[in-house]
Amino acid sequence: MAVVISTRIDKFGRVLRVVGHRFWSSSLVHSVSETKDEVETIARIINDHPFPVQPLQPTLKRHVSSSILSTMFVENVIGRLFAAHANGLKAYEFFEFCLHHPEYSPTSDAFEKTLHVLARMRYFDKGWELMKKIQQLQPSLLTLKSLSIMLSRIAKYQSYEDTLEAFEKMEQHLFPGKKFGTEEFNILLRAFCSQRQMKEARSVFNKLHSRFPPDTKTMNILLLGFKESGDITAVELFYHEMVKRGFKLNSVTYSIRIDAYCKKGRFGDALKLFEEMDRSAMNDGCDHTSTNAPDPIRTPKLSVLGRENDVVRTGDGGVTGGVMRRCARRLGRWGAG
């Protein structure tokens, strides 16, 4: 038996908490356990197989029946291979095997993990091949995330020219019905910034900003890249360029600069930025502060400035709690000293 706590919204817009009980039969528990064992078994068989010395498909035909080939099963097997850093070609062989079964419909989770495993091990030809197949079978699975997975790895392991060529290839051949805009431009810039390739990122910006109008998020991605590269002078120069270009600064902009100062031990400058951010919030009539910070210094609201799958993300609504809490602790120690 399990206690279930959920929320419901009634017709008046009120949030209601629902507390109930769920009774699981022994047969259901056994079924779940059995499925987990099957996932572990198949993942181990794939991981231990001597592919590509010997073909993997015959082994999969012997051990993977259509009766167990569910969406969750495929996602879990690929998830195990992903976590185990298995050979990307083996994960691709398994996913391709599943695609040939009419009972199976690919999901974004299975596709993106397979693509990530291939790109992580630099099997870019197979990555392109996979994306082309998905475009033909289920083009809705080609999203900004899959674009980001490929570009970030190509930027890491290949040249500046290769990365630009990949971007153009995706725009012209893999996403032919979609008009690329600022979001896609931001992903391209983030691919370079996440690798601290700021010379290349700046070059891309100068080359393409007239075609893809930048927004505040674009500028914050670049500002974060300069911060991650440890060049506080470049951070301040680019910040002043943002102001000169007329971009509206937000709490993400402030948090990047504050963290840059904290990492360099310039806590007095960081504290001034806290105060400047407070004044800016009051003038704009916006609430950038929250009382749930672990330090007396007021800190901005949480948002999505961080890393996921080695890809730097930058949000517009606030700043990461981790950055602000870290800086707040440092500022607290600096003030106490």
Topology:
Layout (H helix, E strand, L loop, with lengths): L1 E8 L5 E8 L3 H23 L8 H7 L7 H13 L4 H12 L8 H13 L3 H14 L6 H14 L2 H15 L7 H12 L4 H11 L7 H13 L3 H14 L5 H13 L3 H18 L21 E3 L2 E3 L7 H16 L1
Antiparallel strand pairs: 1-2, 3-4
Helix pairs in contact: 1-3, 3-4, 3-5, 4-5, 5-6, 5-7, 7-8, 7-9, 9-10, 9-11, 11-12, 11-13, 12-13, 13-14, 13-15, 14-15
Protein name: Pentatricopeptide repeat-containing protein
InterPro entries: PPR-containing_protein, PPR_rpt, TPR-like_helical_dom_sf
Keywords: Repeat
Short structural description:
This protein has 337 residues and is mostly helical.
Termini separation: 54 Å
Could you give a short account of the major beta sheet? 2 strands, antiparallel
Question: Which overall shape is indicated by the principal axes computed on the Cα atoms?
Answer: elongated
**How many H/I helical runs?**
15
Organism: Solanum tuberosum (Potato)
Keywords: Repeat
Family: Belongs to the PPR family. P subfamily.
Protein name: Pentatricopeptide repeat-containing protein
Overview features:
337 residues; mainly alpha; two-stranded antiparallel sheet; two-stranded antiparallel ribbon; disordered N terminus
Structural description of this entry:
The structure is a single chain. The protein has 337 residues and is mainly alpha-helical. The protein is built from 15 helices and four strands. A two-stranded antiparallel ribbon has the order 1-2. It has a two-stranded antiparallel ribbon with strand order 3-4. Helix 7 runs antiparallel to helix 8 (160-174), helix 9 (182-193) runs parallel beside helix 11 (216-228) and helix 12 (232-245) packs antiparallel against helix 13 (251-263). PPR repeats lie at residues 215-249, 250-284. Keywords: Repeat.
